[in-house]
Design goal:
Number of helices: 9
Largest sheet: 7 strands, mixed
Oligomer: single chain
Structural class: alpha/beta
Bound molecules: 5-S-methyl-1-O-phosphono-5-thio-D-ribulose
Distance between the termini: 28 Å
Order of helices and strands: EEEHHHHHEHEHEHEEEHEEEEE
Length: 337
Amino acid sequence: MKDNLPIQLTPTISWDKGILKILDQTKLPKVEKYIETSDYKEVIEAIKRLSIRGAPALGCAGAYACALVAYKCNSLVKEAFVEEILPAWNLIANARPTAVNLMWAVNIMKKQLEDYLENTDWDLIETRRYILNCAKQIHKDDIDRCDNLCRHGASLFPDNARVMTVCNTGGLCSGGIGTALGCVQYAHAFKKKVEVYVPETRPLLQGARLNTWELERSKIPYKLITDSMAGSVMRDKKIDLVIVGADRIAKNGDAANKIGTYNLAVLAKHHDIPFYVAAPDSTVDRNIKSGEDIPIEERPSAEISSYLWPDKVYNPAFDVTPFELIDTIITEKGYWK
Ligand code: MRU
């Protein structure tokens, strides 16, 4: 893991002596409170209620939750151990459907465990330790991937860049320094002048609550706007680029991200503004041909309205932006086009 990051890591998720510590994002920006747990079911609940969220962070949380399962399982027989943990690992993988990083991380854990058990004499304590190390490795890799992709992303920023983004894609969305907002923070750390226009990102306000918290911490100038202001702000404030994250990118480059992302891509096209997607390669799902095959999570109606007709609410949490509207997908490996 690199220890020379140009900006400070956000304390989003960490493991200490059998306890998983998660910064509870539902309480931000007013309260910085941590969930500390050794129970994988609590991690699943935290994922469902978005106490931890953002595609790469979900991968890290999923991997550590797998380790929590292993540490609770006392089976002294190898086959019984595997039989007991796998159903719990499957529950973790399916806690949220759109961000592929969650199932990607659990699948890596499964594959590595299978290889390990095939090639090693069975020992419960050693197997648990191995599983935890796999989870820590996924977290470390995430830090490196984010660092590399943000270096690539930051180099696309002109000086004096007026930037628009959506949702939260800084350190809170990953185990590392984040994706799209991480690129902004790196550009700032590399002494480029940047100003960020932050749409609230209804209904859960990841922009208003989480991006503002991160931008305040990194002392980057920003203005909070409502989602419906995006078009006129792009025109009137002469936005130079739009940069967003992704929850799942299909093989053809179509990218699912927070609801409202597609609107920004269409508006950016109209105003001739470059539209960038920043995401680690762990967000690319090569089993899925196009955006049409990406499962879109529908969230509870109460998130939108508590008025009288909750059954008349439609609340998709994500939308898909076709590759043709994306100028470049930035990953840790470089630029997709
Ligand atoms: O519902 P959320 O808050 O988990 O949605 C998160 C996003 O849409 C982010 O933009 C996405 O995970 C990208 S972070 C690389």
